[in-house]
Amino acid sequence: MTYCLAVKVNEGLVLLSDTRTNAGLDDISRFRKMFIWEQPGERSVVLLTAGNLGVTQGVITRIEAAVDAASRGEEVESILTCSTLYRAAELVGEAMNAMQARDRARIEASGAAADATIILAGQRNGGEMRLFLIYTAGNFIEATEDTSFFQIGEHKYGKPILDRVINPETPLSDALKAAMISMDSTLRSNLSVGMPLDLAVVHAEQYGVVQSRRFESDDPVFRQISEAWSRELRAAFHALPEVPLR
Fold first, then answer.
1. Angstrom distance (rounded) from CA 224 to CA 206
2. HEC states along 74-105?
3. How far apart (Å, rounded) are the C-alpha atoms in residues 127 and 168?
4. pLDDT digits (tens, 9 = 90+) for 153-188
5. Which domains can be identified in the chain, with CATH numbers?
6. How much is the pLDDT for 189?
7. Do 209 and 46 meet the contact criterion of CB atoms below 8 Å apart?
8. Which residues of 225-236 are buried (b: 16+ CB within 10 A; e: fewer)?
9. pLDDT score of 88
10. pLDDT of residue 26
């Protein structure tokens, strides 16, 4: 399984993903689930993937092929040349639909699940930051002020902190901390989600990824956040009023 999340606030976007893939109890692998395309100063697009690995890798391959062809001057529409990020979401949805049409029956005949989901986030020069959740069928929804974040994969453990903290006015630095706590909570509660983690931050009006890094298991920054959150949670628990037993 996996856990990926994307948070959209007025100051920017925060995207975080794990890298663990399970094919069985004793078959654990690491695969990147975050993919970034940029035209500095013009456009940035980030994709996060979850679900059937063969399907999502096929989608990414199709997207990358179109980007490469467009960069060579071919008349091919890609996520870096299309008119809007809404159209970019359509292109990813079309690639998802094509992969499902080609492979779904064979995948399910073998007893495996073919479902997959993708988060698309980014901004282009002259446009607003946008965040989309693309489903298995290729259809999608867009984040709004009432829904400022999307999660895919094993999302239930990391949702409470996002529900309590995230809204459009949340500072970007706080959104980053909330995303890290959300991931830490999931890592602690679900063995199918694992490090290393990939992070991308897009600052509003800069049209590019201002921070991109990987957190390994011994990363001091992530460990500090994790330990501090555990410490404060214990302190808050012990400070709660006593509940009468009768």
1. 29
2. CCCCCCCCCCCHHHHHHHHHHHHHHHHHHHHH
3. 17
4. 999 999 999 999 999 999 999 999 999 999 999 999
5. 3-239 (3.60.20.10)
6. 93
7. yes
8. bbeebeeeeeee
9. 98
10. 59
CA distance 40 to 38: 6
pLDDT tens for residues 64-103?
999 999 999 999 999 999 999 999 999 999 999 999 999 9
Chain-centre distance of CA 143, in angstroms? 13
Tokens of 94: 């079309």
Position 18 pLDDT exceeds 60: yes
Measuring CA to CA, how many Å separate 111 from each of 23, 104, 229? Answer: 13, 11, 40
**Rounded Cα gap, residues 118 and 62, in angstroms:** 14
Q: What does residue 25 show for φ and ψ, rounded to 5 degrees?
A: -60, -30
**Cα–Cα dist 200/14, whole Å:** 6
Residue 48 contacts residue 236 (beta carbons within 8 Å): no
Reference 85, options 112, 58, 59, 124; nearest CA is 124
**Against a cut of 0.90, is the pTM above it?**
yes
Q: In this structure, what token pair is assigned to residue 129?
A: 């930051």
Residues in the chain: 246
Helices (H), 43-171: 53-71, 85-109, 159-165
**Mean pLDDT of all residues belonging to the chain:** 94
Residue 128 has which token pair?
């607003």
Q: Does pLDDT of 27 surpass 80? A: no
Give me 237's structure tokens: 């628990």
How many angstroms separate the most distant Cα atoms in the chain?
A: 76
Percent above pLDDT 90 for the chain: 88
